[in-house]
Write a structure and sequence with these properties.
This protein has six helices and five strands; from the N terminus they run ααααααβββββ. By secondary structure, the chain is α+β, with helices and mostly antiparallel strands. Keywords: Membrane, Transit peptide.
């Protein structure tokens, strides 16, 4: 065994003895032994305290409250009325039904039907009217044609489209709208003479129309099934 081997062995023994002396001593700053029972008891009592500042959690955002029945048709129908009950019955069977959207569409249909009737446009009327109402309108158009008369109608304004009736009959929803409008209308004979109405006088017109739709059908269109006038 050479001198270098003896030196390395002596150095190794020295280092081992120093480490043992250090690792085997207690300084008084050691952590206490792990007490599993104490930790379990603290967890059960929910008293485990974490260091640091306690931050209050933000309250949960309030969930949207369902629209109370009394406010469901606000601006359209008073709670408890036949109109409100009719709307409830329709929307119960057709959740996509929106009466406000319907009223908007009914305004457009009202103008289209009035003008189509004045112009004798049977094709347009057939798509917008029930078969019974169409027959009535066509009979009036035929009578005008027989007498060689023409009707000129122009809308000045539609001042109001108010929902006044709603009901569900089996699978058929029916909605009644009261239209208040201003229009100019005149019917002329073949010589151009006015036989009905006026070409320059604005008339106040109130019509009460009923539209219907089979809510079990995929066809989303409503058709005019009844007409009346308050004038």
């Amino acid at each position: 065994m050479d001198i270098y081997t003896i030196i390395f062995l002596a150095l190794a023994v020295f280092i081992f003895l120093r480490l043992r002396s250090v690792l085997g001593q207690r300084t008084g700053n050691e952590r206490p032994p792990f007490d599993r029972n104490a930790l379990q008891g603290a967890q059960e009592k929910n008293v485990v305290t974490m260091p640091g500042k306690v931050i209050d959690q933000a309250p949960l955002a309030p969930t949207a409250e369902p629209t109370p029945p009394s406010d469901r048709w606000k601006g359209l129908a008073e709670p408890g009325t036949a109109l409100a009950q009719g709307l409830d019955a329709i929307v119960e069977k057709d959740s996509a039904f929106d009466p406000r959207h319907f009223i908007s569409g009914a305004r457009g249909a009202y103008e289209m039907i009035v003008l189509a009737f004045a112009n004798g446009d049977r094709r347009a009327l057939r798509d917008l009217l029930s078969s019974e109402v169409y027959e009535s309108f066509e009979a009036a158009i035929k009578d005008r044609e027989k007498n060689e008369q023409k009707t000129e109608t122009r809308f000045v304004s539609i001042d109001k489209a108010e929902l006044v009736g709603a009901e569900l009959r089996d699978r058929t929803a029916q909605l009644t709208i009261r239209f208040v409008s201003q229009m100019i209308s005149a019917t002329r004979d073949k010589a151009g003479n006015i036989v009905d109405g006026s070409a320059d006088t604005v008339a106040d017109i109130t019509d009460i129309w009923t539209f219907a739709r089979d809510i079990s059908s995929r066809d989303p269109n409503w058709k005019l099934v009844g007409t009346g006038s308050a004038n």
